[in-house]
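Homework help board

Subject: predicted structure for assignment chain

Our instructor gave us this sequence and asked us to write out the predicted structure in token form, then describe one feature. I got the tokens but I'm not sure how to describe them. Can anyone check?
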Amino acid sequence: MLKGLFADAPLTFAGKHYTIDGLDGFPKPAQRPHPPILVGAGSPRMLRLAGREADIVGILSSSTRTGTLVDDPVERLPESVAKKIAWVREGAGPRFDDVELSTVLAPIITDAPRREAEALIGGRGWSGVTPEDVLAMPSIVLGPVGRIVDTLEERRERFGFSYYVVSDAALGPFVPVVARLRGR
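My token output:
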């Protein structure tokens, strides 16, 4: 429906939940055919849909299947993230190379990454994961600035992430990482 409302002609649509009859979206976007559409998802069905329709797919590292946010560390492990990207690829088909992959990133600038990983496990009440597991999680980066830059570049190569969302609370400490990435 969004793509139809951005198009030049009026939109007519009849579906299970919506019926639209000749609605001409206004104002028309300056970006053509439409502004980039970002869909964040974590389940197979929604990741396939996002792959099929979105320009940017946000890979959720926490489950929302129950209708609330569940912080399950297994969802953050590299194997789980790779599986989610495979579902996006399945939905996107031949257009996968045109889809930008995104994730929410939790950066922790520290000279003691293992100790911070242990603190994260305890603070979140996670069980069944080791500090090494946390250090490998694509949605978490721990370490000094140089190590974080190297890790983000490695994860871009491995997973295809090129779009990271960083919370406003982490922006200040993350500035040196962005500066170093821009300089490369």
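Reply (TA_rk): Your tokens look well-formed. For the description, you could write something like this. The first strand starts at residue 11 and ends at 14. That's the kind of observation they're looking for.
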